[in-house]
Model the fold of this input.
Amino acid sequence: MRISDVLRIKGDRVVTVTPDTDVAGLLRVLAEHGIGAVVVSPDGTAIAGIVSERDVVRAIAARGADVLTEPVTRIATSSVRTVTPEVSLEDVERLMTDGRFRHVPVLVNGALGGVVSIGDVVKNRIDELESERSELAGYITGERP
Ligand code: AMP
Done:
């Protein structure tokens, strides 16, 4: 299964915040959409960074609640790892595990075209492995799944 298949299932909607959004505003966006990270983008298509709840936790632990009035760019990660739609789920899984992050923006023709989270990867990998397993069981037993 490829990233394009995941986006077909979950949709290509991407939640972004502009670089001048403050951290309190970021937290409202995360809570409102029930998500753990957003892409920082001036226009909704160019990627200026990525910021997750983990960045907020680390910054508050280090500098206290004053962080809430700082712009998100102060705490965001600016060198963002991205994937393209033809990348396999297995490769994204490895990218997330090695990089220790749970969100990867998808670039479609050079512009932001989706975000895949570790939840999407795990769900789709389980579905994929389950269908492979039942095909193999059918092959062994001679029964069609
Ligand atoms: P996460 O596990 O996605 O909450 O993110 C953990 C850390 O990795 C945070 O510092 C994020 O800003 C950063 N991060 C998240 N996604 C990416 C990504 N695709 N590329 C680079 N850094 C990322």
Remarks:
- The chain has one domain: 3-141.
- Residues 36-37, 50-52, 54-55, 77, 80-81, 101-104 surround adenosine monophosphate (CB under 6 Å).
- The first helix runs from residue 3 to 10.
- The chain has a mean pLDDT of 94.
